[in-house]
Design goal:
Structural class: alpha+beta
Number of helices: 5
CATH architecture of the largest domain: 3-Layer(aba) Sandwich
Number of strands: 13
Radius of gyration: 42 Å
Number of domains: 3
């Protein structure tokens, strides 16, 4: 065939849904070989028989189905849908050439109703002519083991309070505790219940078939109590600081007044011959005391009014 590319397609019957999402080896129980119309090379025919044998050893039944279209993504999905099938296996082969001494084989599992970019898992491998059949058998086994991840993740959700509503985006999907089958991709779950702060849980569904999470919502009374407790502490602090400033300011005013009253008095009996100078420190104490009283009074009033 030189550089020519040969193809064949396997399809999995719609009953291939996972019976138990936690079982890592869940997979198809019946497949149909969907082959392009026309003759195939001897090597491609041998690879088909190898894939058929590999599937039968896994207790998967096999039937032949033919199709006539280019085996691209649209053709594959259409052929599977026309046959009433949900999942297909696409296998391709590039035979060895002078520039590429080894052949290349590839295997793809594809969903008939999947979204482009998220509807397939695939592997390919270089192989010598004598080793390609073994490579196909290994690739089929690999993809069957990986396939359950396409079905998403079964999430076991527990926590408090019991009966809390669980939303996936804007859709109500159940209550907690419960099991939720999440399709492959990112999910933002919101858990809500009357009298509790809502909770948010982010889940990446697909990489594991089963996952367990716990969410304990916070009662609104508890959160309000925490806020009220902090508020009361702030009020008490303002009142205490106000009282302290009032007391300190009053003391400074008293000391400053006494010191100021003693300044400028006569140092001797009449007639006076000398006087003491004015006390500058008295003025500073009076000023600081008045400022302290004003600040303390402001804090006291604010603390009393802040309810």
């Amino acid at each position: 065939m030189g550089r020519a590319r040969a193809h064949f397609l396997l399809s999995v019957l719609g009953t291939a849904a996972i019976a138990n999402a936690a079982a890592a080896d869940a997979g198809p129980r019946s497949v149909g070989f969907l082959s392009p119309a026309g003759e195939a090379s001897a090597q491609l025919t041998a690879l088909r028989e190898t894939a058929r044998s590999a599937l039968k050893r896994k207790s998967i039944s096999v039937d032949d189905v033919k199709f006539e279209c280019s085996p691209d993504a649209e053709c594959m999905r259409g052929a599977l849908q026309d046959a009433g099938l949900e999942v297909g296996v696409y296998v391709w082969l590039w035979e060895a050439t002078r520039d590429r001494p080894d052949a290349v084989v590839g295997v793809m599992l594809k969903e008939a109703g999947g979204v482009a970019g998220f509807d397939e898992v695939a592997e390919e491998r270089s192989c010598s002519a004598s080793a390609c059949e073994g490579a196909v058998e290994e690739l089929v086994g690999q993809l069957l083991r990986r396939w359950p991840e396409r079905h998403g993740t079964r999430l076991g959700l527990t926590g408090t309070p019991s009966g809390a509503a669980v939303f996936d985006g804007a859709s109500l999907v159940g209550t907690m505790p419960g099991d939720f089958q999440l399709s492959r991709g990112e999910h933002r779950l919101r858990i809500a219940s009357k009298g509790y702060e809502p909770g948010v849980l982010l889940v990446n569904a697909g990489p594991t078939p089963e996952e367990v999470r716990r969410v304990d919502l916070i009662p609104l009374s508890a959160s309000e109590g925490q806020v009220d407790g902090g508020h009361r502490q702030r009020r008490a602090g303002m009142i205490a600081s106000g009282v302290a400033l009032l007391a300190g300011g009053g003391a400074l005013i008293g000391l400053g007044a006494a010191s100021y009253a003693g300044s400028g008095s006569c140092d001797a009996a009449v007639p006076c011959e000398s006087y003491t100078t004015s006390n500058a420190g008295a003025g500073v104490m009076l000023g600081v005391g008045i400022a302290s009283v004003g600040g303390g009074l402001g804090l006291l009033i604010k603390g009393i009014r802040d309810r």
